[in-house]
Amino acid sequence: MVAIASREIRDGDLVFVGMRLPILAYAVARNNHAPNARGLFEVGLMRDQPASNFLGTMGDPPNVVGALWATRMSNTMALMAQGLVDLGFIGGAEVDRFGNLNTSYVGSPAAPEVKLPGSGGGADIAILSKRWVTLMNHERRRLVDRVSFITSPGHGDGSAGWRKRNGLLGGGPAAIVTTLCVFRFPDGGGEAYLDSIHPGHTFDEVRANTGWALDAAEDVKQTVAPNPSELAVIRRLQNTDGATTAV
Amino acid sequence: MVAIASREIRDGDLVFVGMRLPILAYAVARNNHAPNARGLFEVGLMRDQPASNFLGTMGDPPNVVGALWATRMSNTMALMAQGLVDLGFIGGAEVDRFGNLNTSYVGSPAAPEVKLPGSGGGADIAILSKRWVTLMNHERRRLVDRVSFITSPGHGDGSAGWRKRNGLLGGGPAAIVTTLCVFRFPDGGGEAYLDSIHPGHTFDEVRANTGWALDAAEDVKQTVAPNPSELAVIRRLQNTDGATTAV
Amino acid sequence: MDKVMTMAEAVSRFVPDGATVALGTALEPLIPFAAGHELIRQGRRDLELVGPISDALFDQLIGAGCVRRITAAWVGNVSEGLGHCYRRAAEKGVPRSIEIYDHTNFSISLALWAAAWNVPSLPARTLLGSDIVGTNPNIAVADGLAHIKAVRPDVAVVHVQRADAMGRAHAWGPLGITEEAGLAAERVVITCEELVEAGVILSDPNRILFPETKVVAVVHQPGGAHPSPVQGYFKRDHEFFRDYAAESRTAEGFGAWLRRWVQDVPDRTEYMKRIDAATLRVKGKQLSAPANFADE
Amino acid sequence: MDKVMTMAEAVSRFVPDGATVALGTALEPLIPFAAGHELIRQGRRDLELVGPISDALFDQLIGAGCVRRITAAWVGNVSEGLGHCYRRAAEKGVPRSIEIYDHTNFSISLALWAAAWNVPSLPARTLLGSDIVGTNPNIAVADGLAHIKAVRPDVAVVHVQRADAMGRAHAWGPLGITEEAGLAAERVVITCEELVEAGVILSDPNRILFPETKVVAVVHQPGGAHPSPVQGYFKRDHEFFRDYAAESRTAEGFGAWLRRWVQDVPDRTEYMKRIDAATLRVKGKQLSAPANFADE
Question: pLDDT digits over C75-127, tens only?
């Protein structure tokens, strides 16, 4: 999942990194195909290389050592509001087929079955970054037909041009990367389509664990497996990173 | 003029100081009756004591040495917008009988006879500080009946409650201190009245040099002359301060 | 004016019941846990907590029953996930029900800037298309922009690396929304790793966070941010966060945790004896290059 | 990417005719006179100048005929008073007429924050009751507030104490509207007293003014702010401002001044030989206390 996510980072990108797996994905990209990618962290940091010690959070001291900028959160948001953030990563509890994320409430906000932590910077990234990717354990309860609460908007109701009509600055979700497959979105928004299935997994497995109807598509690719140099970075960091194994 | 202006500063005041004479007035107050007065400078500084070397401008290096805060201008304005600045000083080319200042245009803005430098922070101080004082050479061309352009609003058209009606936060001008006398304003605004005449000057002299009609008031006081300790500070600073002699 | 006092005094004098309190404004680092624990010990009630994300501290205050309303972008345990006390309060009203005013990280910052500049609201390009707009009465969408109402804390409690007795504080590393929180707040309580001579602080006025006129109390509290990190002083105590997440899964577990780490601990000095401070303390030195402030 | 280049190259590549340029954003200190003089030497035309107050530099650019519009709070000579070139342009159209968009110091800062956050305008409590509202089409009053339209400079030119080759800049002392100007601008040109190793700058990321992604050029230009002061490097040259005020009273006098100090001077290195740099240079050291950024 990390290696696949890392490939969404293009060389020279300014990446709004966020937490946990995306921190690994940035490290993999930076050490492989995107040597000039910079990481922006809402805590108030910009970096051009991964931290050299383990990070439990983006605000941990190792992420400050060697930083290119230690500043206020609102300044990192200013860059994103200007359309200068090429790619953002957002975690989520629930994603729907239009790429909307719910990290706020399962059930009614007035009397929720589950109170999730909330947006953090998620909604800001979803609305303002040029494109974004979400990483998700592939479970039927997480990939739902429609989220009951849109914390971080993807393509809204899926109608063409929904984001433009609602004045959202960025292009919206580019991909949903799960533990089984990769979903992508047509240009201009709409519904997620199955783009590739990870090696060792099957379409039936994906369909069984997805909360919306998938029609068998002949042209589904197999996800390119992580290459040795990608794996090397992941292994090196995982050794020092308890959190990632948890995800 | 400096000693008189300094008496407008109360102990514990946060004073939006500005340039030239007010810098001296702050020094006099701080060294005499207002040991706990702090100075705020829009360049982005707060101080609790006068600079120890000569200042040509508020941004000169001596004003930074020993500063309590070196920051952005907008942060100093934030304090003033919150009503936390007790007293401001504003210089002006022209003041009228309602305390409005013009530092922008003599004649029409489209085709001015004289283009003055502009507001700087003057309008901000005039609108946002709790009370403010202006210092002026007493000349008929400077103390006019009505200014042609209001850069920094005093009491507007002089009608009762003009500032409140127009949503101005601060209380407006408390005094006009000139080379001849001190004008003050009634609570709630209105027209300036002659409060005291400096020793050695006469009512006729004031009237002859004032651009609005003054009716002889019996109860005009004589301005209290600078006391030795006030003069001591002024002399000490003037020795190192070319600018003040110019004013 | 010397503003140095104990945590107990600072909290009792400046954070009354019902107050709106900004905490954890630097996001993951510099979280004033010591101040939060003193709020719990003093049984403070009906607080409105204001912050961006709040790494476990908001969860603890909610679980202890101190909180009436949350005005924040995220409440949980950053490295571990959900906030179990937050869940119990929001889902079951245990120990009491709370009001939740959802924000995003950007919008809570702008809400504080609005208060700092004393305007009713500020416009922003975020929040469009998010259901948060419908649940927070202080956010409205008009003319293609979100309008975020000012949030003015009664007090901001900020942990920093060093401060002087007058309340001039130096902090470094990422600062999140600390500056706007301090400017927006009626008053600021500083807790610091080191209490230093004024000369140390005034040697670098650019690093001073707030005007001293906002600061009402200075509490010398080494380790006052544990288990959150303090650049140059303490590493983050990841295991402590992990243990808290595990123990707070049930109300009973949280109660036990609270007794052990807060209620049965008289103060931070005693608390520090119960953690492995030696291992967490930063031993290395990576000093900032000096800036010359000389004027002649 | 190494962004070091000469002033001539930086100005010719990044400040085209017609550009909107922010200059003198720290108010009285750190004014990029060297960059302004290069603009004059290259005969740049139709510029819109953006700044708070501008101590003589805007007056010089106006007198040299480079300027189409002024978007500023104050234009003159801070210690001496009026700007004579500004007067001639505004009153007589000499050497050309200029458009004037008046601001206050607060409103020009907010106009830049609006651009930095990419919103059409920001509200403020200033400007109410001032006739400035009527003369600047980018300021309107509604609902009891002034609404200040965003100002987005094409380029901000900022003089700092030190920077590295990648464009990471450290500046200290009062900063006026420098931060918002750099964030709002499409691109930033840095001119610096000292060009230092990256390690010096990265040792203190909190002192870095702008994200390096905004910076397009770094010009090593000691004395590049003369006659304005640079904390720790140069005192203010009061006499130079006084002489400029006297000589620029007439168009002829200004022409002579311009030839002597700009047109007949090939570059800043030569210029520095013509002033008493030894007397103006700061010799003392008052160093900021170090901050420890170590993580373990």
Answer: 999 999 999 999 999 999 999 999 999 999 999 999 999 999 999 999 999 99
| pLDDT for A241 beyond 90 | no
Long-range contacts at D37-43 (CB < 8 A, ≥ 24 apart)? D37/D261, D37/D262, D37/D265, D37/D268, D37/D271, D38/D7, D38/D8, D38/D11, D38/D267, D39/D11, D39/D15, D39/D66, D40/D64, D40/D66, D40/D258, D40/D262, D40/D263, D41/D262, D41/D263, D42/D8, D42/D11, D42/D12
8 A C-beta contact, residue D174 and residue B71: yes
Residues 204-233 of D with CB under 8 A from B: 229, 231-232
- For residue D288, the chain C residues in CB contact (below 8 A) are 203-204, 206-207, 288, 290-293
**Residue of A8, A42, A94, A230 with catalytic role:** A42
What integer is the mean pLDDT of D164-190?
A: 98
How far apart, in whole angstroms, are the C-alpha atoms of residue C30 and residue C176? 10
Report pLDDT for A239: 59
For D205, the closest of A14, A64, A83 (CB atoms) is A64
Is residue A42 annotated as part of the catalytic site, yes or no? yes
Cβ within 8 Å, pair B169-C118: yes
Q: Which pTM was predicted?
A: 0.98
pLDDT digits (tens, 9 = 90+) for B169-220: 999 999 999 999 999 999 889 999 999 999 999 999 999 999 999 987 778 9
D293 interfacial to chain A (CB closer than 8 Å): yes
Task: Give average pLDDT by consecutive 10-residue segment, chain C, 296 residues.
Answer: 97 98 98 98 98 95 98 96 97 98 98 98 98 97 97 98 98 98 98 98 98 98 98 98 98 98 97 97 98 98
Structure tokens at C72: 């924040």
- Is the Cβ of C102 closer than 8 Å to some Cβ of chain A? yes
Residues of C in contact with B77 (CB under 8 A): 117
Distance from CA of C138 to the nearest CA of B (A): 20
pLDDT digits (tens, 9 = 90+) for A91-150: 888 999 999 999 999 999 999 999 999 999 999 999 999 999 999 999 999 999 999 999
Contact B166 D72 (CB under 8 A): no
Tokens of C196: 């230093």
B240 touches chain C (CB under 8 A): no
Average model confidence (pLDDT) across chain D: 98
Side-chain-side CA neighbours of residue C290 (13 Å): 11
Q: Contact, C28 vs C236, CB < 8 A?
A: yes
CB contact under 8 A, D293 and A46: no
The mean predicted confidence, pLDDT, of chain A is 93
SS3 D62: helix
The predicted structure's pLDDT at residue B188: 86
Among B59-63, B80-84, B90-94, D194-198, where is mean pLDDT lowest?
Answer: B90-94
Per-window interface: B 96-135 vs D, CB < 8 A = 104, 109, 111-124, 126-128
DSSP E strands: which ranges in chain C? 20-22, 47-55, 67-77, 81-82, 99-102, 121-124, 139-142, 145-149, 155-163, 169-170, 187-195, 215-220
Nearest chain D alpha carbon to C116:
D124
CB contacts of D196 in chain C (<8 Å) are 289
Question: For residue D215, which residues of chain A lie inside 8 Å, CB to CB?
Answer: none
Q: What distance in Å separates residue A219's CA from the closest CA in chain C?
A: 33
Find out whether A21 and A1 touch, Cβ atoms under 8 Å.
Answer: yes
d(CA C115, CA A112): 31
Partner A, chain D 166-195, Cβ-Cβ below 8 Å: 168, 179, 183
Residue B93 has pLDDT above 90, yes or no: no
Report the residue from B62, B78, B81 with minimal CB separation from C295: B62
